[in-house]
Amino acid sequence: MDTLNLPTFGHKISEIDGKAHIFDELRRKYVRLTPEEWVRQHMIHLLLSHYRYPKALIRCEGGLLLNQRQKRTDLLVFDRQGQPFLLVECKAPHVPINQSVFDQIARYNHVHRAPYLIVTNGLMHYCCCVDHETDAVTFLDDFPPFD
Tens of pLDDT along 109-138? Predict the structure, then answer.
């Protein structure tokens, strides 16, 4: 897997049916190791270890219904009141972060209404704060701390 612009962590990789799998602490099982999953697992560990987000408040690959179609969010973090706090969209390192990626997370956030969004391909990271009253978007220099 590619070296990412994210802190390394003690990952567990195993071969299952001839394919590489990585252990996901949130789902408590091995999942197929794809370039996007590699980025997602790095983001999970960054949020858990560096930003101290509670594991119990992070949902991985959660479903949502958007225009009568089933979609999946990469990571959704809830606040202590159970409301969406942070939505994360992960892409493989070779996928450029462009307007279509921002459009995708904006569509997902139309359902969740989280105040913070992160888009990353493991090499480039963008974080913004969304004011749902005015639709103003402010890009941040760092990821939001968990209160």
Answer: 988 899 999 999 999 999 999 998 898 999
Helix (H) or strand (E) holding 79: none
- H or E element in which residue 4 lies: none
| Core vs surface per residue 106-135: b (16+ CB within 10 A) or e | bebbeebebbbbbbbbbbebbbbebeeeee
Helix (H, G, I), strand (E, B) or coil at 51: coil
End-to-end C-alpha distance for the chain, whole angstroms: 33
**Of 23, 20, 2, residue with least CA distance to 12:** 23
Considering the domain 13-140, what is its CATH architecture? Alpha-Beta Complex (3.90)
